[in-house]
Amino acid sequence: MPKAKGKSRRHKYSYNLNRKRLYRSARRRAAPRIACSHIRHAWDPSKSVAQNLAEMGLSEDPNKALPIPKKLGVEAESNGQQSGKKIVRKPYVVNEMEYEASLPEKKSNTLSRDLIDYVRYMIQNHGENYKEMARDEKNYYQDTPKQIRRKINVYKNFYPKEYKEFMASLKPEKMDVQ
Question: Where is the region Disordered (predicted)?
Answer without folding.
Answer: 1-21
